[in-house]
Write a structure and sequence with these properties.
The complex is a heterodimer. Helix content of chain A is about 40%, strand content about 20%. By secondary structure, chain A is of the alpha/beta class. In chain A, the strands form four sheets. A seven-stranded mixed β-sheet of chain A has the order 7-6-8-11-12-16-17, sandwiched between helices. Chain A starts with 7 loop residues before the first helix and ends in a 21-residue tail after the last helix. In chain B, strand 1 and strand 2 form a beta hairpin. Chain B is mainly α. In chain B, helix 1 runs antiparallel to helix 11, helix 2 crosses helix 12 and helix 12 packs parallel to helix 15. The chains are: A alpha/beta, B mainly alpha. At the A-B interface, helix 3, strand 7, helix 8, helix 9 and helix 10 of A face helix 1 and strand 4 of B.
Chain lengths: ~450, ~350
Amino acid sequence: MSKSNFTRRGLLKTSAVAGAGLALPTYLRAAAHSGYTNAPSGSTVTIGFNVPQTGPYAEEGLDELRAQELAVAHLNGEGDGGMMNTFSSKALKGNGILGKKVTFVSGDTQTKSDAARAAAKSMIEKDGAIMINGGSSSGVAVAVQSLCQDAGVIFMAGLTHSNDTTGKDKKANGFRHFFNGYMSAQALAPVLKNAYGSDRRAYHLTADYTWGWTQQESIAAATEAIGWTTVENVLTPLASTDFSAYIAPVLNSGADVLVLNHYGGNMVNSLSNAIEFDLLSKQVNGKDFEIVVPLYSELMAAGAGDNVKGVIGSMNWNWQLTDEGSKAFTKSFGEVYGRPPSNSAHTCYVQTLLYADACERAGTFNPCGVVEALEGFEFDGLGNGPTLYRADDHQCFKDVLVMKGKQNPTSQYDTLEIVEVTPRAQVEYAPDHPMFAGGELGKCNPGA
Amino acid sequence: MDAIILQILNGLDKGSAYALIALGLTLIFGTLGVVNFAHGAIFMLGAFCAVTLSKILTLSYLTIDETQVDFLGNPLKVKTPYVEHWFGQDVGAALIDWAVPLAILFSIPVMIAIGVIMERGLIKHFYKRPHADQILVTFGLAIVLQEIVKYYFGANPIPTPAPDMFRGSFDFSTFLGFEPNSVIYPIWRLIYFAFSALIIGAVFAFLQFTTFGMVVRAGMADRETVGLLGINIDRKFTIMFGIAAAVAGLAGVMYAPINAPNYHMGMDFLVLSFVVVVVGGMGSLPGAVAAGFLLGILESFASTTWATTTIPGINQIIIYLVAIIILLTRPRGLMGKKGVMED
């Protein structure tokens, strides 16, 4: 039998020392005083921009980063102020956020969920970022949103279009300004009916991940509602670069419309392959064959070159809009970078301003205060007309653009034209809509 | 039946790319014994030769058009290519239109030079090192080349179209007695297949019917004996590395109109090409070509709706599945020889 040296007094002493030791790091952090993660204690506040700086969406990410840097400059009172001059809320003064100068750190998502989470984690834990903004993929957005929820910081999503981001994967600490697959479909369906009629047979090629699935489900439902038939839906691997094997059977399928639920490099390649097969010059069922790209971006259109001519799709925003907010942002961005901003740049810029404005109105950086300030917030002057941040799912509701590849572009930036600005009412849906079912928003997490 | 013909055609053009890359890989492995993971990057550099020539031909000077405005409301700067200014609008436009075929001529010396520099500057130092070291260094080189291309050309795909007269598709239906539009295939892909067959034939003829080729084949069989005969076999092998680089480069040039070149395109082909080499048999040139076409066609059939509905995901694993089956039944690959990569 072994003899134990434990005594009640010894145990109490050890517990007290261990408890003090464990408490010390927390005590030294400002968060311990304020009750939320990474509370700013000095004269600056740090925000994190998590965008793809390498990998297939790097161009998209770099444009986002340009816009985010511009937003920081405007928040700190530098430059011409951009959309701060047209924003309906006048809480931002150009003196940082709550009087603290804004600094930023950036991470590289590589368009991979694990890399994006690691970059966000590093910015939160090592750099003290109080908010994460960015991303160019729904897979990344969903992963980083979940991380931010657990860490107790706000996530202001960049380009993410899957219904799931504010559907089954929604989180209280996450907010999406960008539109989604359902909204694209609702905006596109009437335009497609007018352009191509109601008796059409559609063949879908769909990227095999969360965004592709929800985009396809949305556009199939919307086009079936106007009388179209969905002939086939073929899932294509995200890593595909040559889609000829998927496109070759399209003409023999009896379909007269090809819907490309692809984005980025996938879309550039699948559209180019479809044009290579001369689909647009064919007649099927007595009708001209047509191609639809539900989600467009300027950078993708530039990548696809002449192939986008006449092809209809949708966008969240475009620099050709003539409202005062869009003009102000395009001017600011264009003068600094010599090019018009993309819609992913726009959404990241707007999200950064919206976060800063929410902090000012809430009078705190506490995520729960920010959530409260953003939920149900109605605003205007940021480029999409009157906009609502709905409290139920943290999705923005605003006008949606239907675009078409321009027949005679005058410059490399002039690839798309606005066909219609679809009013917000047409793309709204109930919070419990079946396509957004599942998941709980939960409660805000201040962390710390 | 029409669907089967379409998928065979489709497999042939994909198989052409695999075969050309695998042919180059096998040439390098067969001559120098190096497992070259930078070969995909060489294919990518070839595609960027087409992009570069296209950019050179579209180099422009600016004039101000006061009647139009840019996105900021300033007078529009209109670009006019120098070639149109120098040679007239028609000739200039034709040169720009024919950028990809012209890039074939442009790329041959460029790619041979890149291959020779690569071999003399880096790879020759790893001849006597283990294959793992060779893989690491060539893989690292591939990443460096990728990043250089990304730095200069950006990450987005760059559209590089075929000449106008080769765009569009050819309808085989009437020749084969099918309904119109049931067997159509892009003209450029048919040209790509014919071009690949020509290059493969030229490489085999070069090795088979020239003195240089005979020495190289002898060197591949017994390097030491050829060296003892007073032939500088290292120099000949360096030239073969350059030729292999040119073959991969030409494959890349001609592939540019099929998929808009981007800095990552080499990696997309690299792994599959290595599988092709292994299935064909390490060091076997006919094996590499045969396996390239075989796997291209199988991959094409596996991507049909019927195949993906019957076995979901089959399109993503078919090549690896076939590789496993072949290696289990024929461990040296389809046409592999005894002693290659065997202790």
